[in-house]
Design a protein that fits this description.
With 144 residues, the chain is α/β, with parallel strands linked by helices. It has 6 helices and 4 strands; from the N terminus they run E-H-E-H-E-H-H-H-H-E.
């Protein structure tokens, strides 16, 4: 069985962003718990600073097993208002709602059938990540 974990690309998860108080301690613990369910050979679907978050979590979480695994680092759409980085795309709120429902299910078939063009329009995944996400196939999905 393939395992897929989706975590947010929050830079505050990185140790260099830690301060005297840790506003994301619960989020970090949940992410590490989820990443610990992955096998030792994990394919990361993330770019830029999100990839740094992924590699930090993989280094910090104990993992074992030979099951195929993916670590997806992403966020909701970045096109929900005119001031958003991707400007306004009226489909963004519906996309976020459908993505949440598919992940919370979990419903791998819904994720595999998801219109990946919508992900591009909402800035949730880059071109390379969309292609690789489609290859994850029928998977066990952990959402924290």
């Amino acid at each position: 069985m393939t395992r897929v974990v989706l975590v947010p690309g929050v830079l505050a998860l990185l140790p260099e962003y830690a301060g005297l108080t840790d506003p994301v301690a619960d989020l970090r613990a949940a992410c590490l718990e989820a990443v610990a369910t992955l096998g030792v050979d994990v394919e990361v679907l993330a770019t830029g600073s999100a990839a740094r978050v992924a590699h930090h979590l993989l280094d910090a979480a104990p993992r074992r097993g030979e099951h195929p695994s993916y670590l997806v680092v992403g966020n909701g759409s970045a096109t929900r208002s005119e001031k958003a980085p991707g400007h306004l795309d009226e489909r963004a709120a519906d996309f976020d709602r459908r993505l949440h429902a598919a992940l919370a299910g979990p419903d791998p078939a819904a994720l595999a059938a998801k219109r990946l063009e919508a992900a591009a329009l909402s800035w949730t995944l880059g071109e390379r990540e969309r292609a690789r996400w489609g290859s994850a196939g029928s998977s066990r999905i952990w959402m924290w």
